[in-house]
Amino acid sequence: MHNRMENTTPEVDLYHVPLQYITDHKEGVSIPEQVEAVCKGGCRWVQLRMKEADREEIIRTGCVVKEICRRHGALFLVNDNVDIALELDADGVHLGKEDMNPLEARRILGYSKIIGGTCNTFEDVVDRFRQQVDYIGLGPFTYTTTKKRLSPILGLEGYQKIMDACRKEGIHLPVHAIGGIRENDIQPILNTGVTGIALSSLLKNNKDMARKTKDIIEQLKIKE
Ligand code: TZP
Ligand code: MG
């Protein structure tokens, strides 16, 4: 199989953007404020995830978040909704298993946009790779309350198995671990071969989101 990066054209090399922040509701801190904080801390990849909001609210918030991301040179992706990603002219979309097929999303958004897909098993990875996604979100690492209807937990062993199988089968693409990741998990997770992490709670639940983001980025750099 080929390296996905050979036949796509996102302007950014996703292997080199190892931290993705996934937005969530936080009492007293709006989503734009969250995004401003993580960008200030050095995060360069934001996924707008607003599971409880209607289309209008997502668009309204997305316009503001996109401008913050642009100002900081951060990628701005939208969760689930290809049509909202299109309307906002986002950098891309992240698609779960119940969302639009990535090939269809590609047809709609074009080759310059980033399309990511959720995976829980090696079979999912093979499917997503064949559907020409630019990166995958692989998880959950462990239990988290951020996502409802969580897929089976992978743990370190799960990541190791899947990443080994990817290497064996020649599947090379950026892989972000996701789901319940705490600070002490980061190095062991990276050691399995994943190329980055996607975080919500760990950053969101910190009083100083910018500072925590900076700390995490330092840890991700050590790996390089
Ligand atoms: N998918 C699996 S976990 C998750 C998504 C979108 C949210 C992030 O999890 P956490 O534990 O809040 O970092
Ligand atoms: Mg989804």
TrEMBL record:
Transmembrane stretches, start-end: none
Positions with a binding annotation for 4-amino-2-methyl-5-(diphosphooxymethyl)pyrimidine: 47-51, 79, 118, 147
Entry binding sites for 2-[(2R,5Z)-2-carboxy-4-methylthiazol-5(2H)-ylidene]ethyl phosphate: 144-146, 180
Domain of life: Bacteria
Binding locations of Mg(2+): 80, 99
Family: Belongs to the thiamine-phosphate synthase family.
Purpose: Condenses 4-methyl-5-(beta-hydroxyethyl)thiazole monophosphate (THZ-P) and 2-methyl-4-amino-5-hydroxymethyl pyrimidine pyrophosphate (HMP-PP) to form thiamine monophosphate (TMP).
Protein name according to UniProt: Thiamine-phosphate synthase
Species name: Butyricimonas faecalis
Part of the full-length chain shown: 433 to 656 of 662
